[in-house]
Specification:
By secondary structure, this protein is an alpha+beta fold. The chain has helices spanning 3-15, 33-48, 63-66, 95-107, 129-139; strands at 22-28, 53-58, 76-81, 84-90. Strands 2-1-3-4 form a four-stranded mixed β-sheet, sandwiched between helices.
Length: 146
């Protein structure tokens, strides 16, 4: 395969969602004590929702994929279905809060519409393009689900 066709194939792969299902991404930092304490609970939550893909992303290890996104509060969560981001913002490190949020998204109608959110999680009038761009970049580096 020529390098041009390899680059095209790689770009097509990056433009495709990991799958059309739901993904739950926890953005954390290795130095964050709250994150360290939350990681095991997050992995256990992944076992409760095996139909979803869960990812633990250290923002410093994935600095290139993070781009200009500035995560100020840990944990910050991104929930997406396919290419569509449904939540991007800080969330208390309480797995039951996240479990209820996930369940509410799963229980919503099949014609789900994204709820644009700001970094703080409050509804906004414009879609959060920063979150969508981050999700597109992260899909290129995420390879292992919990």
């Amino acid at each position: 395969m020529s390098s041009d066709s390899s680059q095209v194939a790689a770009q097509e792969h990056l433009n495709q969602p990991l799958h059309q299902g739901w993904s739950v991404v926890c953005l954390c930092a290795g130095w964050c004590g709250v994150c360290k304490g939350y990681e095991a609970d997050f992995k256990n939550l992944a076992k409760r929702f095996p139909e979803l893909d869960f990812y633990w992303v250290d923002i410093e290890d994935q600095a290139e994929a993070m781009g200009d996104v500035d995560v100020e509060t840990f944990p910050t969560l991104l929930l997406a279905q396919g290419h569509q981001v449904h939540h991007f913002g800080a969330m208390l490190p309480q797995t039951e809060v996240l479990a209820r949020h996930i369940q509410s998204l799963l229980d919503s109608s099949p014609a789900k519409q994204a709820v644009p959110t700001t970094q703080a999680g409050a509804p906004s009038e414009q879609p959060d393009t920063e979150a969508a761009e981050l999700w597109a970049r992260l899909q290129g580096v995420l390879s292992e689900a919990f």
